[in-house]
Amino acid sequence: MRQKERIENILKLLDERYGTDIICYLDHENAWQLLIATILSAQCTDARVNVVTKDLFRKYPGVEYFARADLKELEQDIRSTGFYHNKAKNIIACCQDLVEKFGGEVPESIEDLTSLAGVGRKTANVIRGNIYNEPSIVVDTHVKRISNRLGLTKEEDPVKVEYDLMKVLPKDHWILYNLQIIALGREICKAPTAKCDACFLTEFCPYYKKNSGKKTTNKKTEGAR
To answer: In the record, which residues are listed under signal peptide (predicted)?
Structure first.
């Protein structure tokens, strides 16, 4: 089967399983709230971030408040999200840049977004996709792991994975792919052990075919004993 046809089948099955609605798992009312929530989400669950930001955005109701925040106090406010020293420092510096360079508004371009403290391509693409509806591929741990297993990339570096996926996925699935793959990663294609027996993509998955072959070989070896 050609790669293009295989990918079309994968996307069709993902659409059928998880739907085609664009959903953001981080609670937010505007661009700056999503930006800060995404910074907080590094090495932290979306559910935990949503608990923290519920009170955080009441205490700091705008980027100007974060820009003037006391570092030690903000650290304690976000402590439960982990890595709170760096996150607090980056949030303050990021919001200072937003105030001083962008008039308090969250910019749209990838170049402007990644110029902000604590904002890499992943965070920038979350903003571009969810706020500005710009086709973008967000590469998190689920997307990197499962894209490798599906044979859509051989890269480990998130930026290289992003560029590989941009070459093979249609633009209308760039944002959707991330959401669907997160759902697949949480439900079935887990790390380190995938629940391949429960997966609906096995027909098109090189990882499954490689490992199911190993299981067959092992069974034959055990039988010979």
So the answer is: none
CATH number of 31-130: 1.10.340.30
For residue 135, give the nearest of 178, 172, 177, 181 by alpha carbon: 172
Give me the phi and psi of 219, to 5 degrees please: -65, -40
How many other β-carbons are positioned within 10 Å of the β-carbon of residue 178?
Answer: 23
| CA distances (Å), origin 192, targets 10, 49, 155, 186 | 22, 24, 18, 12
70 is catalytic: no
Catalytic, 140? Answer yes
Residue 68's identity, in one-letter code, is: R
Active-site residue among 77, 122, 144, 164? 122
Instruction: Report pLDDT digits (tens) over 158-184.
Output: 999 999 999 999 999 999 999 999 999
Instruction: Please check whether residue 59 is in contact with residue 71, taking contact to mean a CB–CB distance below 8 angstroms.
Output: no
- Which residue of the set 140, 144, 160, 164 is catalytic? 140
The token pair that represents 176 in the structure block: 């959707």
pTM given for the model: 0.85
Q: 167 phi and psi, to 5 degrees? A: -75, -30
**Rounded Cα–Cα distance for residues 201 and 183 (Å):** 14
Residue corresponding to tokens 């090495």: 43
Residue-range domain boundaries for the chain: 31-130
